[in-house]
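Weekly sync, protein design subgroup
Attendees: M.S., D.O., the rotation student, P.L. (late)

Item 1: inverse folding check
M.S. brought a backbone from last month's batch and wanted to see whether the design step gives back something sensible before we order anything. D.O. pointed out we never logged the input encoding, so this time it goes straight into the notes. Structure tokens as presented (79 positions):
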């Protein structure tokens, strides 16, 4: 990932705001980086997104990015 100033991007990287009860928009979790430039080694996936009424396109895209990347660092094995 590019190094970005998480505070200026509006993301909640750490602290009590990130972990208090309620819902944190995906855009504020760090999954949305509108200025990110893909590297030659990045895998690009395209998704068709139809947000629910009242959900902006950026939030819907950030939700897809967040859910797509969940647990991609997890080691998986079989016995």
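Designed sequence read out in the meeting:
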């Amino acid at each position: 990932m590019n190094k970005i100033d998480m505070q200026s991007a509006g993301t909640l990287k750490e602290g009590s705001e990130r972990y208090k009860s309620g819902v944190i928009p995906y855009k504020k979790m760090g999954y949305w980086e509108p200025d990110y430039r893909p590297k030659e080694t990045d895998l690009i996936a395209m998704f068709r997104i139809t947000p629910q009424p009242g959900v902006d396109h950026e939030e819907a895209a950030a939700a897809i990015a967040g859910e797509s990347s969940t647990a991609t660092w997890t080691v998986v094995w079989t016995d």
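Discussion: The longest helix spans residues 57-69. The chain has two helices and no strands.
Action: P.L. to compare against the previous round before Friday.
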